[in-house]
Structure formats: C-alpha cells, structure tokens
Design a protein that fits this description.
This protein has one helix spanning 43-51; strands at residues 15-19, 25-29, 57-62, 72-75, 80-82, 103-107. By secondary structure, it is mainly β.
Amino acid sequence: MSQLLKKCPFCDGSAQLHNDSRQFWYIACLQCINQTTHFHRGKQIVIDRWNTRVEKTCEWVKCSDDSPTPNTFESVCGAMWYLGDEPFYTLENVSFCYQCGGKIVVKDGGE
C-alpha cells in the first residue's frame, strides 16, 4: 500500500498525516483544516480511508434577484448561503457544501 495522500476532497489542498500522544492516527488538510476522525487501528487504515473517495455533489441554485435576500444560493440538501455585497467567501474559493460535504455544482447562472 502506498503512503501517498490524495489532496483534500473539499478544497484540493495538501494533506498531512498526524498522530497524537496516544498514537491515534489522523489526516488533516493544510488549507481548509478538514480532517479525518481519530483512529486507533493503525496508520495504513487512516491513509486508505482518506484516499477512498465517493463522488458526491451538491447542486446550488442562485435565488431570484428580487427575493428578500438577493445574492443568496439554495442547495438541494437544504443549505442556504448569503454571499453579501462584498463577500469574504465566494463560489470561486469555496468548493464544498457546508451542510452535506458534497462538491458544489452551481446551476442556472450562479456567479
């Protein structure tokens, strides 16, 4: 088995293997701080689980501009995201749904 870690499934950042003082192994993204839960079964199991991917997407649709909160997106999983007038987060720098964890797919003219 290879110890090469795939990039983060959420932000495509680099990942790093860690162990704590009790020898529980976990992997954390160096960019968005997504991480696995702690495992005590061994380092290779943690690596294999991190590297195993299930393709999950979450479709986001921009709400009408005449809605009470313009610049808002709704997702099929029920999440809502208000980007504001000068957003810190945009659909260009966040690629995962905060509610279900799926990769964001913007439909119907999202910005």
